[in-house]
């Protein structure tokens, strides 16, 4: 999302500073995470009561259809709508489509410049496991794996821009590849990414 704003000449400032638009990219895995989200949202109007406050991500998915909570925010967007966030801000429109029917990985903009020498690279979204205590499958949808060639291409761009360490991330990376129409797994991703010339280290992280 940050890339979308940067590429359209927005100035990015710290969340605690005065701004015209505040984006809260929310998590809802624990009660603490949802409380933090609510606190961040209530803070924005105190800093600038004319601001546009945009709630995106998992908490937005969780509270959709709850009109009393929705009314507190200017714009609410689900996880799949993040890629078009500027369009929704321009229209001042909220949108949360049913994530459970999204079947393809949505490619975000590839970072043209590495920010740090360590950078994360997302390979899949969603989970099919439905563990009894976990909300993730309901707010992130089913497993959607990213094409392996896109992953390697992003890895090459990042390394070209001085990234030395890549962290492979996803919601349930062990399921990587199960939804694709060719045979590929997490091991293939690790092998291919680790062969990118100039890369020193590959790590794995489960979100
Ligand atoms: S595997 Fe992990 S993300 Fe998936 S439902 Fe279980 S705890 Fe949640």
Task: Note down, in words, how this protein is organized.
Helix 8 (186-194) links the parallel strand 7 and strand 8. The protein has 8 helices and 8 strands, in the order H-E-H-E-H-H-E-H-E-E-H-E-H-E-H-E. It is α/β, with parallel strands linked by helices. Helix 7 (148-160) runs parallel beside helix 8 (186-194). 32% of the residues lie in helices and 17% in strands. The protein has helices at residues 2-7, 31-47, 58-63, 67-70, 85-91, 136-140, 148-160, 186-194; strands spanning 21-26, 52-57, 75-77, 118-122, 124-125, 144-145, 165-170, 201-206. Iron/sulfur cluster is lined by residues 127, 129-131, 134, 136-137, 171-172. Iron/sulfur cluster binds next to helix 6.
